[in-house]
What we know:
This protein has 328 residues and is of the alpha/beta class. It is built from 11 helices and 9 strands. It has a single domain, classed as TIM Barrel. An 8-stranded parallel β-barrel has the order 1-2-3-4-5-6-7-9, surrounded by 8 helices.
Amino acid sequence: MTNYSILDLVPVVEGGSVPQAFANAADLAAHAEALGFTRYWVAEHHGMKGIASAATSVVIGHIAAATKTIRIGAGGIMLPNHAPLVIAEQFGTLDALYPGRIDLGLGRAPGSDQRVAHAIRRTLDSDPNAFVRDIVELQSYFADDGRTGISATPGAGADVQLYILGSSLYGAQVSALLGLPYAFASHFAPQLLDEALHVYRSSFKPSEFLDKPHAMAAMNVIAADTDAEAEFLASSIQQSFVGLRTGNPRQMQPPVEGYKAGLPPHIAAMLDEVLSCSAIGAPETIRDGISKFIERTQADEIIVSCSVYSHEMRKRSLDLTAQAFNSL
């Protein structure tokens, strides 16, 4: 059976608050653990009113404290924003607190715009090899092999699993070169999914970390008791993407009946493209959608993004999603 996991953006909903978003994330992770999900990831974004996971390592610690067995991690940390030593210390700390449960997915996008990148006080390196160089430096801190001349404390000897994230061919090439598992962000950037997975698998070089390719693919899954109800719930994520693409990002909005039907054709077409890797509907509908996505990607693991305004309906969606995976 294909493993199934969760990517949570820790949404701040309209009328809600950041503390409530954190409480919901911890509750949802515990719920996912009980349902048999493999891992629970949160992602680094900055300057976004509707996403509360900017201090990603802190949020991971909060969620890990609310769970016992499920793997917790970053999907991901945007490495250009940080000195590798700082990330080694942060995730070395998490590994010391929650041993054997911490994942570190690494991306090269800033997770923000240029103004926010400047505010983070990191100069974005135009060298195309900078990302690989930072990964190798980070690996050196965890291995404590002396190549940097610095011993990360905490961090040295930490058992943190590294993943490379991507929405283009570059991440596939890097993960294949370094012999690391690869996760493709097809839940919002599906265009190069098939080509990236081919590049990763065909170019993979075995390493001390992995002897054969391990590919993860992300998809949106919003499940409810009926197709109509799931489509209604999905209007919240549709509003989020429209706001983001039109320069008006907001907190997650309540669902709106018939939202997509009222959009201009070019905006509706944009949503169809962005959300093409999605299963939205009743149990049989999402089971069929998940099955076709697994057949298409041959992914070793599917990571599910479930952006729903109501926390209780989101938990219900995860119930039905787990049932669908277990029935395949």
